[in-house]
Amino acid sequence: MKSAGAVQLSAVIYTLLNNHDLVLVAVAALICALSAFAGISLLHHARRSTGWMQMLWLAVAAVSVGFGIWATHFVAMLAFQSGINVGYDLPLTLASLSLAIAIVGGGFWFAAISSSNADSIVAGAVVGVGISAMHYTGMAALIVGGSIAWDGNLVALSILTGMALSAGALRATRSSTLVSRVLAPILLTLAICAMHFTAMGAAGFADCYTIVTSPEGTPGWLWMVLALASTLILGLALGGTALDLRDRRQSSESARMRELADAAVEGLVIVRQGTISATNRSFNKLVGSAVEISGRPLLDYLDAEACAALAQTPNATIEGQLTGTDGPIPVEAVAHEIEFQGVRQLAIAIRDVSVRKQAEEHIRFLAHHDALTGLPNRVSFGDRLNETIDRARSEGQSCTVLCIDLDKFKQVNDLYGHAAGDALLRRVGAILRRELAEIGYPARLSGDEFAIVLNASSSIAAANRLAERLLHAFEADAAEASGDLAISASIGIASFPDNAGNAEQLMSAADMALYRAKQDGRGAYRLFEASMDSELRDRRLVASDLANAVSAGQLSLVYQPQVDLISGAVTGFEALVRWAHPQRGEIPPSTFIPIAEENGLIAQIGEWVLQTACAEAARWPASLSLAVNVSAAQIHNTSFSRPIHEILVRTGLSPLRLEVEVTETALVRDLVRAVTTLRQVRALGVRIAIDDFGTGHSSLANLSAFPFSRIKLDQSFVRSFDRNPQSAAILHAMLELGRYLGVSVVAEGVERREELTFLRSEGCRTAQGYLFGPPARIDRFGDLTGLIEQQRTADEPLQVARA
Predict the structure, then answer these.
(1) Set 448, 484, 545, 692: catalytic member
(2) Is 761 exposed, middle or buried (0-12, 13-18, 19+ CB in 10 A)?
(3) Are residues 714 and 670 in the same domain?
C-alpha cells in the first residue's frame, strides 16, 4: 500500500503533467530563472555598496524577484487547465505582487547586512515566506464559483519547500566562488517553481464552476501586466548580468591590486566618506589588528588632525599618529583620489616613521650630549653655565663650577686600549649622574675632562661636600676595579663672582685649581686661589716651549759611565737628556719629563734622544755600549722596533752595542703588548735592561716573561745597605738571582767607597754613579780609548769625567 507522501507527490506530478500547458510552464520557469539570476546579482552588488545606494540596489533586487515570483505564478496559472473559466480580482492580484516585493525585500536586506551563515539562512527563509504569501494571495484572487479544496499536507510541504530552497540560495550567496554564484539563482528558481507546483497539486477544483463572463477566462489587463513584468524582468536580468560581469572584472582587478598592495611596504587604506573600505597587509600589521578593519571609521586608527589634513590637502604629505595595539605610532601619510569598486575614494599611503623619528631624536640628543657617557656635552654645558651665571647675577647669588680630570687616563688608553678607557669614562659618567641628583649639571667636555655647574643657590661649602663625595665614590668604585683601571681624579673648584666675572674666567679659574690638585699629588680637590694663576700660566708656557725645544736645539745629552768593578774598565755610557731653556736656564728632567708625558711630547723627545745618542756612540770604540731610557708610551707602541731599526741603519751603530732601559712599572700595565714590542726589539739584536728594579711592581714572573739581558738595581737599595739590613739582604738576593738566571746586574747610584766595597764583596760586576763621575757631555771624558786603558790599570776607581 502506498504511503500518504508518495500519493501526494504523485498528485503533484500528475497535476503538473496533465493539467498544465507545458510550453507555458517552460515560459514560467524561464521568467523565474531570469528574475532569480537578476535578484541574486543585484544582492551581490548591494553588499558592496553602502548607504542609500545599498538600499536602492536592494529595492531593485526585491522588485526583480517579486515580479519574477508574481509573473511565474500567473504564467503558470495561464498554463493551468482546470476545465473552468477563471477571473482575477485586481486588488488582490496587486496585493499579491506587493507582498512578494515587500517580504523578499526584507529578506534581501537582512541578508545584505548579516555577517554570518546563520543570518543568511534566516533571510532565505523569509524570502521563502514571501514566495508562499504571494502564491496563496494570488490564488485567493481567483474568481470562480464554489470553493477550492486544499490538501493541508501539500500546502505545508509547499511552504517548507520554498523556505528551505530559498534559505539554501541565500546561504550560497555568502561565497564568491563561481559554483556558489551559479548555485544561488538555481536554488531560488527551484524554490519558486517547487513551491508553486506543489501548491497547485494541493488545490482541488472539483467543486468549482465558472462565473466569469469572458469567454477566454483571462482579462486583457493581466496579459498586459504579464508582458510588462516579463519585459522588466528581462531588463533587470540583463542589467544584473552586466553588473555581475562588471563586478567580476572589478573583483579580478581588485584581487590583482590587493596582491600589489599587500606587496607594498607602506600601509595602504582605502577610505570613502571617512569609512575604511579596504586595507593592505602592511596597514593591518601596523595597527596590529586581527579583526576585520573594513567598515570602521578611519578616526579609530588615525588622529583627527591628520584625517582632516588628508581630506583638505590631498597629494600632500602630512604627519600624524596611528593607533596600534602597542600604542601610538608616528607616521607620514599622503592621500590620492582613485576609483575603487566603481566609486571615487581616497587611497591613503601610510609610512611608519618611528625609526626615522628615533634617529632624529638621537641626532638631537647627540647635538647636546656626549655619545659615550650620555652626559651633556661642552655646548650644552656652556649654555647652562651662562644661564646659571645670569640667574646668579640677577638674584645676587653665587655660582660654583667644578672641573674634573682623570689621573693618568692617557696611560689607561695606551696600556689597555681605548675600549678600557671608554669603559672607565662610562663609569665616571654614571657616578656623576648618581651623585649630583638635582643639585647640579654634569657634562663631559672632552677626553677625560668633566665639569659640573651647581645650581645658583648652592654655596662653596656645598661644592666642597660634593667634591668629597665624588672622590669617595671614585674610591669605592676603585675597590671593585683592578689596578690602573680604577678611577682616580683631581678636582678644581671656582666660584662666581668671587673668583671670576664671566663664564670663561670662571672655567679658567677652576682649571687652575685643578692643576694645583694634580701637582699636590692627585686624587684630591683644591679651591681656586689668586696665586694659582701665575703658576698655571708658567706651567703652560713650559709645555709650549718644550714642544719647540727639539727643533730649537735646546735639548742636549749627557752621559754617565758604567764601570766593570772587577777590571775597572769603562764598559759603556747611559745617555741622559738635559734642557737648557734660553730664558729659564737649566730645567731638570724631574720638571719637564712629567710635563712631556702629560702633553704627549715624550715620544718625540724619546726618538730624538735615541737618534742623537746612537749617532754619537757610533764614533766610540767598539767595546763601549750605549744605554738609552725609553718611556712607557714608546714601549706600548707596537711599531716601536721600526724607528730603532731605521736609526741603527742610519747611524751605523751595531745593535749589539745598544741597550734600551725600561722601567718595570711601565711594563706590567699591558704584559701582552709590552712582551710583543720588546721581543721585536730583541730580535734586532738590541739588549734590554729593566731599570729601577725593586721599586715598581717587582715580580719574578716579569723576569721570565720579558726578554731582559740586564737588571739595574735602584739606587735606594745601594745607598741604604749599611743603614738598613733589609736593603743589604735585598741587594744580596737580587745579585744571587741574577747569577742563577744568567742575567748581569748593574748597581745604580754608587757614590761612596763603602758602597763600592760592599758591591764587590757581593760579586756585583757593573756599577754607575757619582763615585765614577757625574753625567757630563761626552767630550769632557777626553780620549775614550785612553780612558779605558787607564781604568783597566787602576787599583781604585777614578773620576773619569774631566774638568
Answers:
(1) 448
(2) exposed
(3) yes
**Contact call for residues 223 and 217 (beta carbons, < 8 A):** no
Domain that holds residue 481: 369-530
Q: Determine the Cα–Cα distance for residues 207 and 201; give it in Å rounded to an integer.
A: 15
* Strand ranges inside 167-252, DSSP E: 203-204
Report the chain's mean pLDDT, rounded to a whole number. 79
Find, among 394, 398, 396, the residue nearest to 455 by Cα.
398
Label residues 63-73 b or e (16+ Cβ within 10 Å = b). bbbbbbbbbbb
Alpha carbon distances (Å) from 72 to 48, 230, 398: 29, 9, 103
Report the candidate in 167, 99, 157 with the shortest Cα–Cα distance to residue 131: 99
Is the pLDDT at 128 greater than 50? The verdict is yes
% the chain with pLDDT above 90 = 10
Asked if residue 339 and residue 373 are part of one domain, the reply reads no
Establish whether 448 is a catalytic residue.
yes
Distance CA 288, CA 692 (A): 71
Tell me the whole-structure pTM to 2 decimals: 0.46
Q: What would the pLDDT profile of 643-659 be if each residue is shown by its tens digit?
A: 999 999 999 999 999 99
Q: Are residues 214 and 346 in the same domain?
A: no
Domain boundary among 315, 335, 358: 358
| 797 within domain boundaries | no
Supply the pLDDT for residue 556. Answer: 93
Cell of 215: 469567454
Instruction: Name residue 630's amino acid.
Output: V
Phi, psi of 120 (to 5 degrees): -65, -35
Residues 136 and 233 in one domain: yes
C-alpha span between 568 and 790 (Å, rounded)? 9
Cβ atoms within 10 Å, residue 423: 14
Q: For position 702, what pLDDT does the model report? A: 58
Tell me the average pLDDT across 753-766.
87
Q: How far apart are CA 466 and CA 448, in angstroms?
A: 19
Alpha carbon distance 298, 321 (integer Å): 12
Q: What is the pLDDT of residues 61-109, one digit of tens each?
A: 888 788 778 777 777 777 777 667 777 777 887 888 788 889 888 888 8
